[in-house]
Design goal:
Number of helices: 14
Structural class: alpha/beta
Oligomer: single chain
Strand order of the largest sheet: 3-2-1-4-5-7-6
Number of strands: 7
Distance between the termini: 29 Å
Order of helices and strands: HEHEHEHEHHHHHHHEHEHEH
Length: 310
């Protein structure tokens, strides 16, 4: 299961931002443990606790195999929305929190959950198969306008209406249980690979309530971080980056750097997954942030389509 190598994005830049803040570290999206392994090996003398969160228990098992030898590492098989609760139970506050909002290479190549359209896999797309419903179930019952809204909101897909109508019409003959069934329909409609990628991204964001969960995760991380602590985000597409940018508008939060940090051309050449990455780092300047100050990020997703929270 661990034969897929996931190269952590912007690792040197993250280490630079972490130095001096490495006492209580939270890897909010641990995945295969790429960033956490670098933290543990390069900053072991200074880290007191390293919390590794991931709701995808399969990827977290890979991280455990890599990081079990470090006594200060604790694995948390939960969403990053639980950061506040977990740290409160440990009577700790974070000095540094990292969110890497990209998919791991294992999820794409080995999870068999339909994250890639290059293989024929079950059309699931859930990070945590213990929660919610797979995409195939949603496609059986959604109205065309619901599908269109998802594709427009989360993928800015050009032929969203045509795709939605076609899915509803075709499901009388096709169950849409596999990625190949969906891809065949999209190819028949003349979609290029770039647009198919957007369709898959939009459905994945919807199934996992990614942006609603991100907002809750941001609030949880801020509440769990001590005054003077830092929270870093690696984003990969514009819609999540727009939410992250607004953190600087929350009273008590400030940017560490005025502009996002991008990977070098050398890194992009070595790791194409880094090509769309942006790093933004924020510092908490107060002990506690008032609940009303989160309105600015809550309002960004209040009208976005999402399955009911479970």
């Amino acid at each position: 299961m661990n034969d897929i190598v996931h190269i952590p994005v912007l690792a040197d830049e993250i280490i630079s931002m972490l130095k001096g803040y490495e006492k209580i570290v939270v890897d909010a999206t641990c995945g295969n443990g790429g960033h956490s392994y670098i933290f543990a090996t390069q900053l072991a003398d200074n880290i007191q606790r390293l919390f590794c969160f991931d709701k995808d228990t399969e990827t977290l098992k890979i991280a455990q195999n890599r990081l079990n030898k470090f006594s200060f590492v604790e694995f948390v098989p939960e969403s990053y929305t639980a950061i506040k609760r977990v740290l409160e139970n440990a009577n700790l506050r974070a000095t540094f929190v990292l969110f890497d909002l990209g998919l791991s290479m294992w999820q794409i190549k080995k999870s068999n959950r339909g994250f890639t359209f290059h293989e024929n896999e079950p059309l699931d797309m859930r990070y945590d198969i213990r929660e919610g419903e797979p995409l195939s179930h949603f496609l059986k019952k959604m109205l065309p306008e619901e599908i269109e809204n998802i594709l427009k909101t989360y993928g800015e897909v050009k032929k969203a209406s045509k795709i939605a109508v076609s899915i509803v019409r075709e499901r009388k003959r096709t169950e849409f249980k596999t990625t190949l069934e969906l891809v065949n329909l999209l190819r028949h409609l003349g979609l290029p690979t770039s647009e198919i990628q957007k369709v898959f991204m939009a459905f994945r964001i919807y199934v996992n309530r990614e942006l609603h969960t991100l907002v809750e995760g941001i609030k949880s991380a801020i509440e769990a971080t001590q005054k003077g602590g830092r929270i870093a985000f690696i984003t990969y597409h514009s819609i999540e980056d727009r939410i992250v940018k607004k953190i600087s508008k929350i009273e008590g939060m400030k940017k560490v750097e005025p502009y996002p940090i991008f990977p070098t051309q050398k890194e992009i050449k070595q790791n194409r997954a880094a090509r769309s990455a942006k790093l933004r780092v924020f510092e908490k300047g107060v002990d506690d942030v008032k609940e009303t100050n989160y309105t600015i990020i809550d309002s960004m997703v209040s009208s976005f389509p999402a399955p009911s929270a479970r």
